[in-house]
Design a protein that fits this description.
By secondary structure, this protein is an alpha/beta fold. The protein is about 60% helix and about 10% strand. The chain has a nine-stranded mixed sheet, with helices on both faces. Helix 1 (about 1-20) packs parallel to helix 10, helix 11 (about 325-350) runs antiparallel to helix 15 (about 420-445) and helix 17 packs across helix 18 (about 515-555). It holds the Pfam family Dynamin_N. Belongs to the TRAFAC class dynamin-like GTPase superfamily. Dynamin/Fzo/YdjA family. GO terms for molecular function: GTP binding; GTPase activity; microtubule binding.
């Protein structure tokens, strides 16, 4: 009757959470869940058996070796059936006795045979008329000492796994504690208290009440009545099948009836009413989970809306799905290549910025080049003295010192210019690397998911940059060779000389003693020319012509016949697209359900 009354209200909420969990968005949403924790031999497996109506793996040591998501679905008129799934494997069966084997096989597949653990989830879905609508996650029991075959840190690994689940504020912590131990010292409850200090989301189950020492019943009563360690969700005391009853083949249904009689006749616990028995526990858990889900709905709705936006953005970044019609494919290729050409032209004009501003980077290098030129002017006097001294030493005839030949000063200019060739070539190399990197970034962005287009463009970008940098260096070397002629228009030279000279008497310019000043004026003209000419040649050949030639090569693909090869997507793109579409569909469905609820 309880299940029939709650089914219409409970099932949609629990199904919604289970569906979102199944589609892999649990981590993004931190879905509401009930997580079962307990020390080894706390009676955890027995409680889950009683709730699910089926036998689960039992034994000494670590029995639960992987997180087990137990989905219980009340079906009034259906026969019993189950489904176990993990790592994209799904097995359906209709015989309850097979549950143990299927769970053990799943744990062996995931964690290996033995006593090791694994964090991967196993999902066991049971449909039956004897269960409540409820979803639980069972975690490995807390181990204190590693046994043979287990890693020494097995205890810490299990605690780490448990903490990953119970630290989430969306998780209800179901702590299983035997009645015959000191509850304050149980590690499971201590871990729960660490993450749920106020005790607002912890519910404790007390097991094995038949093993309480005579006279200790009052202690348990105080605990159940929330007087010892207060918990908002309180305590429930249950009596499940013990090993003796299992050996005697007592069924779970008979064990539930035996439990009713035990509490009904018990001198101390008969008055606890709804705080005892598996039946009351299942009701409490179902109501608690549903209320917890309801409280989580507003925040969950906001998270789903954000996820919807994120998934849509990721789908948009995957570009459009490849067309099937040949004419549509060619149109799509034209569109993809045109977008790339537009962007690379905008980049070469300084209209768009990728990861870094290309023109800012180039200006920094051109500024360094100008700094080298300026330094060479400052070193001018030193070079003049060195060359003049060398001339006087080896070539001077009858003339007095300081009346050197004009050729001496031409040699100074040529020597200084010769020292600038390597820095100019380094500037070409540096800017070429910048431009090629920016072109590659555009290629990767525009042709994302199309390996052929990426490889083709990358190969051509590198080849064209090789060619264009060689052309730029050739032209710059030609410029240096022309500068070796030591020439400028008289009007330009006179203007510069007038600016540099401190005297206003220009009738003395033909005197050899004025040669150093005259040469300095000329060299400043050279610096101005080279300060602009080198960057302009680099800009023209490497960036402008480089972009133009890359565009030309990409356009040549439009005349190719094998469009399928050119537009072949990376395999991961299609896989990712399918996955994102499934997530989008799930999120839209979840959002609709949330709005309706």
């Amino acid at each position: 009757m309880f299940q029939d009354q709650l089914k219409e209200k409970v099932r949609p909420l629990i199904d919604l959470i289970d569906e979102m969990r199944y589609l892999g968005i649990e981590k993004q949403l931190n879905l509401p869940a009930i997580v079962v924790v307990g020390d080894q031999s706390s009676g955890k497996s027995s409680v889950l058996e009683a709730l699910s109506g089926v036998a689960l793996p039992r034994g000494t040591g670590i029995v639960t070796r992987c997180p087990l998501l137990l989905q219980l679905c009340y079906e009034k008129h259906n026969v019993w059936k189950a489904e176990i799934s993990y790592r994209e494997q799904i097995y359906e069966f209709t015989e309850p006795s097979k549950v143990v084997n299927y769970v053990e096989e799943a744990q062996n597949d995931l964690a290996g045979k033995g006593d090791g653990i694994c964090e991967e989830l196993i999902t066991l879905k049971i449909k039956s008329k004897t269960v409540c609508d409820l979803t639980l996650i069972d975690l490995p029991g807390i181990a204190r000492v590693a046994v043979k075959g287990q890693p020494e840190d097995i205890g810490e690994k299990i605690k780490g796994l448990i903490l990953n689940y119970i630290k989430r504020k969306e998780t209800i912590i179901l702590v299983v504690v035997p009645c015959n131990v000191d509850i304050a010292t149980t590690e499971a409850l201590q871990m729960a208290q660490q993450v749920d200090v106020e005790g607002t989301r912890t519910l404790a189950i007390l097991t094995k009440p038949d093993l309480i020492d005579p006279g200790a019943e009052r202690i348990i009563l105080d605990i159940v009545q929330n007087r010892t360690i207060p918990l908002n969700l309180g305590y429930v005391i249950v009596k499940c099948r013990g090993q003796k009853q299992i050996d005697e083949n007592m069924s779970i249904i008979d064990a539930i009836e035996d439990e009713k009689e035990f509490f009904k006749r018990h001198l101390h616990f008969s008055s606890l009413e709804e705080k005892t028995t598996i039946i009351n526990l299942s009701k409490k858990l179902t109501v608690t989970l549903v209320e917890h889900i309801k409280k989580s709905l507003p925040e969950m709705s906001e998270k789903i809306k954000k996820l919807l936006g994120d998934v849509r953005n990721k789908l948009n970044k995957l570009k459009h799905e490849p067309a099937l019609d040949p004419s549509e494919k060619r149109k799509h290729l034209i569109k993809v290549i045109t977008e790339f050409i537009e962007k690379i032209n905008q980049l070469s004009n300084g209209d768009i910025i990728t990861e870094e501003n290309l023109f800012v980077l180039m200006r920094k290098d051109y500024k360094q080049w100008m700094g080298i030129l300026t330094n060479s002017i400052e070193n001018y006097q030193k070079h003049v003295q060195e060359v003049a001294a060398e001339y006087d030493k080896t070539h001077r005839g009858s003339e007095l010192p300081g009346f050197s030949n004009y050729n001496v000063f031409r040699q100074v200019a040529q020597k200084l210019l010769g020292e600038l060739v390597n820095p100019a070539m380094m500037t070409v190399h540096t800017v070429r690397e910048m431009v090629q990197k920016q072109f590659d970034i555009l290629s990767k962005d525009c042709f994302e998911g199309y390996p052929f287009l990426q490889q083709f463009s990358k190969r051509n970008i590198e080849s064209i940059q090789d060619q264009q940098s060689q052309m730029a260096m050739g032209r710059i070397k030609e410029q240096f060779e022309m500068e070796m002629l030591v020439y400028t228009q008289d009007e330009i030279f006179n203007i510069q000389n007038k600016l540099d000279s401190e005297t206003t008497d220009y009738t003395e310019q033909d005197k050899r003693t004025n040669y150093p000043e005259l040469l300095k004026a000329y060299y400043e003209i050279v610096v101005q020319r080279m300060g602009d000419q080198v960057p302009m040649l680099i800009y023209y050949f490497i960036l402008k012509e480089g972009a133009k030639n890359v565009c030309s090569e990409m356009l040549s693909l439009l005349y190719e016949d094998d469009i399928d090869k050119i537009l072949q997507e990376d395999s991961y793109i299609e896989i990712n697209r399918v996955k994102l579409k499934a997530q989008l569909e799930c999120l839209l469905h979840a959002n609709e359900k949330l709005n309706n609820l």
